[in-house]
Fold this sequence. Notes:
heterodimer; A: mainly alpha; Arc Repressor Mutant, subunit A; 2 domains; two-stranded antiparallel sheet; 67% helix; globular; disordered N terminus; B: alpha+beta; Beta-Lactamase; elongated
Amino acid sequence: MTTRPDEGIDLLSTLTRRVLFAPLADHGRAGAVAERLRTAITLGILAENEQLPSETTLAAQFNISPVTLRDALTALRADGLVTTRRGRGGGTVVSGPLPDQRRVLLDQVSGLSSIDLRDQADWRRAVSVEAARLAARRASREDIGLLERGSANARSATDAVSARRADSRYFIQLAAASQSSQLSAASIRLQVEYAPVLTLTYAEARTREDVAALLTTLTTAVQDADVEAAGLTAARVVDLVASRAASLRANGWKHA
Amino acid sequence: MEARMTTPNQHDSLEAVARAVADLTQPVFARLEALAQEVSALDLRQAVGRGRLDDHDAAVVESLAVQTVQTLDLVSGAGMAATAGETSSDGVMHWWILRDGAVVTKRHVLNPASDSYYDFSNLRWFTLPASSGTNTLIAPYIDSWGTDDLTVTAAVLVPGSDSAREVTAVVAVDLNARAYVQAVEDVLRSAAPAVLIDGEGRAVCSTEPDIETGVRLAALPSWSAGETADVLGLGWTVASLDATTG
């Protein structure tokens, strides 16, 4: 197998990728690597045609041996999730999400206890509310334009994957509008950690619509420099999704 | 900084501070203008159609960008972007960054279907020079899906390209935001209490702890400006603060 050496090319330089390809606690297992990449592709965090870093770089990043990584990529190729092109300009490329996306998502959330869900929501609320409050104080006109664009994307999302992506990008943009590096980094980590729950929750059209409406209100509050309204609206978004997610979990993650 | 003039006239002193602020990025803009000239000679229309510069042109831009990152103070990244359409997915971006002391290629994701989509055609560092034709400095902002960190960007339109034509191209550098704000703070101190304000009324830096970087000054009830001086070429203002502020 040929790999394109990308020493000197920083394919890990977005924080999303550094989070996705973070070293495994449970290192040494091809299955764990394949699972991480399968989830990222299934959730659409890695899009079709995105190029993965070289095998050498990825193995080093995951803290696994190149042989283990190759085993993981072989499994993903067998699933049809990635393809490997040889020669110059080649490398491993994402080919598209799995047809049985729901099964992969259910695998991800099946181990979540109600305490896990509550903790995720608590952390998301802390980050999002403070980001919203600071954004109302500090957002530039550009930030507000990007938030308007983001809430428009949420309104036009017609499936779980695009609604999840619109939500993630909106909250990352909101954290950026707060001008805080650390809130921004926390928001990007949340995007990856909370994605399975968000995607399952957004399978329901009513949830997509309710959140999109709230994001529109939130954008207006930031634009109006209304710190209190921005914080309260951000909390409402987080609580609405958390409440629907808790109901879903209680129902075995099946929509009523 | 050579801005420490000791004239008794507050207004003159503020003018000198404003000049010193402009001086901080003068070498950066001089380099960007030279880079813009070089890029204007490349076949940008073909590059946009292909999604990247051809190997020869990419090597030309790379050597200039790498040299820029290596030799200019404060600079942490450099490159060019061009688009022929409404969004960055119709465009091309070549960028180099400083990482662990070495200059490496940085790939931006120009695929709108990706979570990490970097839509430069909707970002001010691209749109402002493109629409106004003037050199642009963007006050500290979080460059999501780019540096993912607080960044100051200086950008210059490539001559012969503008939004009325088929291809709009911009050359730009990222500055280390923390170092830049520190340098501004050092300059402002001689006029304290003072604040540097960007083109839309947000604080870039101030000598006062209650006025943090990024805050919209309109959001501060106790703030009031005294004398002001324009920072030439940036559309920014240095303002002395009323003694009652804070």
